[in-house]
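Supplementary Note 3. Input sequence used for the single-chain structure prediction.
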Amino acid sequence: MTTGSVDDRYSGVLLGESLRVGAVLDATMLDVTRCWRAAAGDTNAGQPSLWTFIEFDLQPGDADAFAASLETALAASGGWYCSFGSHEDMRVVFAGRQFRYRRGDASARHAVEDYARGVGVPESQLDWEA
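The predicted structure, written as discrete structure tokens, is reproduced below.
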């Protein structure tokens, strides 16, 4: 059973294809709410056309550990990231780098977008929640 208010919990989507081959992601703290596959990749950017979406919720106290695990598990090439957020907070994690900012902080979001472009995230995929 989960605890914490709905506003405190983080939620996000992890793409199975974003994980490095051989990586092990500590996801024991995730409450997986839905999984599906869709043709959503940008093959022009070198991404596979089919993606596996893993929708999850996460307790606030587990967010730091999950972000750290993602940093080491995400593939460094291909512009992969995972974003998750609470009512007040957003986190965007790339291989070896993570960002955290308050929702509505346009300057902080732009800094993350600039970083994402620099590691190869296609413009159409800079679509995490503000």
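Residues 106-118 form the longest helix (13 residues). The longest strand covers residues 30-39.
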